[in-house]
Amino acid sequence: MPKDLREFLADYERENPREFCRIKKEVDPKYEVAAILTKLEAARKLPILFYEKVKGSDFPVVANVYSTKKKIAASIGIDPEEFREKYLAAMENQVPPRIVTDGPVMDETIGADDVDLTALPMMTYHEADAAPYITAGIVLAQDESGGCNASFNRLMYKDGNRLGIFMTVGKHLHEIYSRSEDQGRPLPISISLGNHPAWALGALYIGAYGDNELGIIGGLLGSPVEVIDGNLKGALFPAHAEIVLEGTIEPHLREEEGPFCEFSGYATGKGLRPVVTVKAMHLRKNPIYQDICGGQHREHLVMATIPMEANLYKTIKGAVPTLVDVHVPAPFSVIVSIKKRFAGQAQSAIIAAFSAEMYLKHVIVVDEDIDITNLQEVLWAVATRAQADRDIVVIPGARGSSLDPSAAAEGVVTKMGIDATAKPSLASFPRRSRVPREVMERINLEAYLNLSSL
Ligand SMILES: Cc1cc2nc3c(=O)[nH]c(=O)nc-3n(C[C@H](O)[C@H](O)[C@H](O)COP(=O)(O)O)c2cc1C
Ligand SMILES: [Mn+2]
């Protein structure tokens, strides 16, 4: 198993040269990197992109590291079908982090007076984006019990050593910050770029406040992650990252942040949001800057569903033991299949799903005969097994995503569950059209017609 991002990249390039693309021609971090990725996606190409020369910066940039499940799976030595099992096992068998005093990221350190964020190739992706952004930074912050929280948070370049930060209300980093702000204290954080991909799966973990995501990353890797306790007490940072920024989120300070085009496919409006002061920058020798293209791109969508589906599976299984599968096909939406034994179990699945993930807005529950990755079949089940007056649960005024542009107030949404299971049961429902199996097996098309001429 690779021990850090650069080892993973070297392994992947060697083993999958067609999925690793080195770009030697200079690219502009303003729009051009996003344009290349957007055009490649339209052509259904998702290679890791390694930009060797980025205008205005000495650092090469890597993007699309998480663009397929295959890549992320390779980084932790599993097949893509094993994610569910592996993630649940990592949640059960967490490996606590090891605090070390040194590591590769300490090759070079730049102190507060000399930090100039413009040295980093921060990106502007879309027309509506207010400024260059850092998107692939993993923020670590300690809660009052000393546990370490990890999350991705977009960071807007402001000036010199200052960044605007977007923290969703109700997520853990926002809660840690609010508690520290209540005490009038700045919150020490670290922002790391260029981690082993397991860090991304940990940062996207959705669990209870106080859960230590470093233990889950250790569980995924099968060994403790090494973190350094830096100058700012409370801000641990990964010893093997490419780049680390240490800083504080200031209490009672709000400045304009945004707009920024988000994974929802829309630009979120500007708002008054907290500010990070960067107090030190640590770098490996020849650091690689990692980028995740802002907006609705494969990388963001694919990666986020892995921990989300594992968490939904675990929580819904607790309520409905005959849960079959869960699938997150689009932002804020999940499709759940169950083997319904008793009336009311679809409703139990809906309630459990909403309790597991605050961002969820729509839950569709179907029977076990439906392929939940086939949206046409799911809509067929909704059309033929549900009646709106009987089978829809509506929860108005609930906490949801602040990135939902249809919400009446930011982050306050109406949630909907659809029970698209057959009533009263699949066994008693009209039978699906099916040619007898024995005949299907017996009939050989080639005996009746020339298949290749059609
Ligand atoms: C590339 C990327 C960028 C993200 N940016 C943000 C962000 O700006 N603000 C935010 O609240 N969540 C963001 N997220 C989602 C959070 O990282 C995610 O909800 C995480 O589980 C929150 O963890 P926490 O509740 O432990 O703080 C982003 C996710 C990804 C993959
Ligand atoms: Mn957390």
What do you see in this structure?
With 454 residues, the chain is α+β, with helices and mostly antiparallel strands. The protein folds into two domains: 289 residues, Electron Transport, Fmn-binding Protein, Chain A (Pnp Oxidase, Chain A, Roll), CATH 2.30.110; 100 residues, UbiD C-terminal domain-like, CATH 3.40.1670. It is built from twelve helices and 25 strands. Helix 4 crosses helix 7, helix 4 packs across helix 8 and helix 6 packs antiparallel against helix 7. The longest helix is centred in the C-terminal third of the chain and has 22 residues. The termini are far apart. The site of manganese (II) ion (MN) has 4 residues, from loops. The site of manganese (II) ion has 4 residues, from loops.
Helix content: 25-40%
Indicate the CATH architecture of the largest domain: Roll
Bound molecules: flavin mononucleotide, manganese (II) ion
Highest CATH level, the class of the largest domain = Mainly Beta
Helices and strands: which structural class? Answer: alpha+beta
Low-confidence stretches: none
Q: Quick one: biggest sheet? A: 9 strands, antiparallel
Please state the overall shape, judged from the principal axes of the Cα atoms: globular
Binned strand content: 25-35%
Query: CATH-wise, what's the superfamily of the largest domain?
Result: Electron Transport, Fmn-binding Protein, Chain A
Number of distinct helices: 12
CATH topology of the largest domain: Pnp Oxidase, Chain A
The total of beta strands comes to 25
Q: What number of structural domains do the residues give? A: 2
Radius of gyration: 24 Å
| Termini gap | 48 Å
Mean pLDDT: 97
